[in-house]
Each structure stands twice: as structure tokens, then as C-alpha cells.
Give the backbone structure.
Amino acid sequence: DVSAPEAKGSTKRDSKTVDARAFDVKTDSTRDERLTEFGKKYEVPIFLDRRVDPDQKIDLSAQDLPVEGVLSLAAQKLKLGTCTIGKVHYLGPKSTASRLAGVIAQRKLDLRKLRPQARTVWSKSKELKWDEAASPRDIAAALAQEAGAELENPEQIPHDVWPAYDLPAMTLTERLSLVLDPLRELIDHVH
């Protein structure tokens, strides 16, 4: 069994702890299958970045760790980064994970420049969900529409088909950032 340092800001007291053999991952299990199953079992919302190979194999065993510690350990094994947005745990390329929380914090600061009514719209919390085979372009357009806005150059968002997601309430700023920011590098290559 493997132990890992606890995630920043978490303690075993205030965090769910993984029970014995809760995350025994065999080499024939894919990352998506195991992390999705783990998230459902422990009621931990996980957003897996589409740029990481979903068929990547993972070999990991953990017990008696806080959930965040197991996710951190899984990310290390997969050479991924993690960050938390509201209650959602993002796993993806380290460059995006290290940048995402800061991007959202900056966007929230930028909201101060808006009129109070617009600030309210962008700060409103709502679940983030979509059906199987939704495209990031359609998801982003629907989120922008919530604010009465339109995406500029939506054709620059690469075509992709995403798995279904049902994530807990986050602000509109967080939701749109979670969908679009991981695509930033792909969008930059379209220019």
C-alpha cells in the first residue's frame, strides 16, 4: 500500500477517508474508468481533462488516505496536475492545473469592474452538466448565453465530443473557465 502527503488545506478530520482497497487499480483498468468510479463511490466530483489519454493505464493502491490525497497520488502516477474549483477536482496537464485556479481568481477580480447586475449574473452558482457527446463549443456557447453574451470566434474552439458530466454548483465564471481554459493551448494554435 502507498501513502501520500495530504492535500494542502485538508486534514483527515474534515475530509472523507478512503477505506481499505478502495483504490486498488489493476493495470488493465483505464484512468477514466477508475477515476470516474472512484469519484462516484466517494461523491467527489472529478473533471478529467480531455487532452490526457483516457486509455492510459494506472497501477495504484491506496488506503486510509483522505480522498484528496488519493487524487493527488493518482495525478502523480499519471504525471498530471490537480486543482480544485469549488468542489470540483480538476485533473489534467500540469501547466493547466497550475494556472487554472489563478485564472479564475483573476476573472473574479475582474468582475468588480462590471455593473452590479452583471456581477450578479457571473457570480451566480449553478450545476454544470451536459449530455454524452456534447461539444465544448456548444457547452461554452450555452454558458455565455446565461450571461446574455456571445462567444467571439466560437469556430476557434476545436471540435471534440465530450462524455456526459454532472458537476455541482459553481459560479458562471468558474464553469466557463473550467470548460474553456483547458482548451486555451489548442485555441492558441488555431490563430
